[in-house]
Amino acid sequence: MSDPPVSASPRESGKGGTAGFAAFRHRDFVFAFGARIVNNMATRMLQVSIGWEVWRITQSELMLGYVGLAMFLPNILFFLVAGEAADRFPRRRILTITYAAQALTAAMLLFAFSGDDPAIGLVLALLFLMGMGRTFAQPANLALIPNLVPKDVFPNAVAWANSGQHVSTIIGPVLGGILIEYGTGRGFGATLAFATVTVLFAAAALSILMIRSRIQSLNRAPLTIETVFAGMKFIWNRQIILGAISLDLFAVLLGGATAMFPVFATDILHLGASGLGLLHSAFAVGEVACALVLTQIPVRRRAGRKFFIAVAIYGFGIIAFGLSEIVWLSLAALAVAGAADMVSVFIRHNMIQFATPDQMRGRVMAVHGVFTGGSAQLGEFESGAVAEFIGPIIVVVDDVDEGQVGHRIEAVGYPGRDEDAREILTTHIDRLRRPVRWRP
Predict the structure, then answer these.
(1) Fewer CB atoms inside 10 Å of the end CB: C or N, the chain?
(2) What CA–CA distance (Å, rounded) separates 150 from 156?
(3) According to DSSP H, which parts of 143-271 are helical?
(4) Domain that holds residue 386
(5) How many degrees, rounded to 5, is the angle at CA 86 between CA 80 and CA 88?
(6) pLDDT digits (tens, 9 = 90+) for 35-69
(7) Is 178 helix (H, G, I), strand (E, B) or coil?
(8) What is the pTM (predicted TM-score) of this model?
(9) Distance CA 355, CA 353 (A)
């Protein structure tokens, strides 16, 4: 999503309607859509499988934390390079290479876990490589769609891309849990799940390879320290964007309940592997439900205030999950947290994309990915490390309390956010989202 005065993308014009299945009339979008779904499904399945296997082998919350740390380190080490690459090289090529590399790494994880005594050190090293692939893929993936469809079809493409990703976020963990449960009952554990992940990553790479579009505003400026850090400078100089991203960082960093899902699934809720998949999917169910509402009732007024309220509700949902020992209540709490998270994501992503020119979008989204996606993995490490000493229930509740303190500090630091966010949303989002509404 880009503001027309500052970006050459999305493509300028197109034929046909802009509602319903308009985006699917464009061949390249169809392949990008398929790759997005299967890649996200593979990622979610891998998350469930890794968590289950590491907990089964080690029975250590700290080791679950190390899984998050192994995935986080590539984010902080390579995000500047990844963002620069997404603006300087064809995003299609970057995604093809990174998805293929993730397929190879998943295959290596399959063999690593197939033995009687898997080496956790080797597993963590492979997860570092997996995280490295994701770090380079994320900014390229987020910045790709504007290059594949005309401007008038772009809102429809975004609606379908986000909906497809959320649906795959629900299906992936459930399918992963089922495959682990099935494999465990037949003596081969999570092998089938890892094999499926490998195939899905390979399919995503093949789908991206089929894209023909070469429309992209490549950054031709000489490579300097200034251009590498341009994304950070861009965000730092825009208080509204910096405030929204850093607020989300507090919420995610100090709310890393996902790392504790294997512990809750086995020791507290007694759900097994399939139940672990349900815990991961419950959060996504709330996200999808809220996303569907937002397609019909977008945020129009008091965007900043709604952003703060959404983050607070997210925290309360995670607290309810941490205190619950009832399955349905735990799932409901996660769904509420997911719905609230979707509101904050909706506001934040639109503000960032609208304010960013295409030739800088990769670097800006790379910084954004570290603040949000990377902080989630660091939050998992923090939760795992602390839970090793005080237990999973206390760490989930205490983390969210600390996060709410961070939110209040943020509110003092960015008093003008509500007005700025409202201006951006009313100027751009409402205008773009109106044609997205689907007709039966």
Answers:
(1) C
(2) 10
(3) 154-185, 191-209, 225-228, 230-236, 239-253, 261-263
(4) 23-217+226-436
(5) 100
(6) 999 999 999 999 999 999 999 898 888 898 889 88
(7) helix
(8) 0.75
(9) 5
Q: Flag whether 5 is in a domain.
A: no
HSE (side-chain half, CA atoms, 13 Å) at 29: 25
- Domain-located, residue 237: yes
Q: CA distances (Å), 354 to each of 154, 166, 197, 232, 302, in order?
A: 13, 22, 34, 17, 18
Long-range contacts of 230-234 (CB under 8 A, 24+ apart): 230/360, 230/363, 231/80, 231/83, 231/360, 231/362, 231/363, 231/364, 231/365, 231/366, 231/367, 232/80, 232/367, 234/356, 234/360, 234/363, 234/364
When divided into structural domains, the chain yields a total of 1
Tokens of 7: 């970006």
> 216 by DSSP, 3-state: which?
coil
Let me know: does 414 contact 243? Beta carbons within 8 Å. yes
* φ/ψ (deg, to 5) at 150: -65, 165
CATH number at residue 127: 1.20.1250.20
As given in the structure block, the two tokens for residue 433 are 């989202």
Q: Is 11 helix (H, G, I), strand (E, B) or coil?
A: strand
Question: Is the CB of residue 223 less than 8 Å from the CB of residue 83?
Answer: no
Mean pLDDT by 10 residues, the chain (440 residues): 35 50 86 93 94 89 88 84 80 92 95 83 94 88 79 76 84 92 82 94 94 63 62 73 67 65 87 88 88 72 75 84 90 92 76 67 69 68 68 59 43 45 46 36
The residue assigned the tokens 């009832």 is: 326
The structure tokens listed for 4 are 């027309």
Residue 404 carries which side chain, given as an amino acid letter?
Q
pLDDT tens track for 182-210: 888 777 778 899 999 999 999 999 999 99
375-390 helix and 61-88 helix, angle to the nearest 10 degrees: 170
